[in-house]
Structure of Cobalt-precorrin-6A reductase:
Amino acid sequence: MDVLILGGTTKARQLATRLIGEGVSLCTSLAGRTKSPRPIPGPTRLGGFGGIDGLKEFLTHHEVKVMVDASHPFAATMHDHAARACRDLNLPLARLAPPSWRTQPEAASWHWVNDHDGAAQILVEMPDTILLTVGRQPISHYLPLGPRHVIVRCVDAPTEDLPDGWTVLQERGPFTLDREREIFSQGVATLVSKDSGGTDLDPKLTLAAQTGVHVVMVSRGSAPGWGDELSTIDDAVQWVRDHEPSSAEK
């Protein structure tokens, strides 16, 4: 196999589509945290690798030539394992992620926090209704908020027992501005999001700016020290081409 893509994102799916169309031998790896992932072109695998050593064994056994880490910008453990495994094997690595929203003009008015615990702390002073759009895995950090009016939006339902006053919307994006208006019409006064990033704001952030809704934004962690940082599918496709082994090497 020439390319291993660490997937689970729209960009990973788009990259796999492009590379499959160019005849590149690849496999997309999914962590398996979402019960019903969207279909992905080409071969896929599901589940973890068993740590850094397990990932190195997989890369070596399958003779992977390059790896593109297109997992979620907040998949910190996966980013770290990918960087350390590729560094140890001297394997080319690219991290594909949308640019941070920090450069957007609206970001200056947001309440930026370092992690979910920080978000939960600042929410104590924020008005209800709170719309949580951080996925189901970090929900435990927000349970100390207690019986307030909180809307949790996620693909799969949280496994925790939620306090009184909390409701769950099981929905999968991307979301339209009209759909966000429907949700905001339930009295949303505070929005909690993660800096997933992009060249444009998500509709919910655009609507928050238009309606004066408070925004609490969880920052990304620092990027690993190994590998190239890319932000577009075109960049990633070109990167793979530049690092493809020659016919003689194959």
Q: What stands out?
A: The domain at 3-98+222-243 is CATH 3.40.50.720 (Rossmann fold).
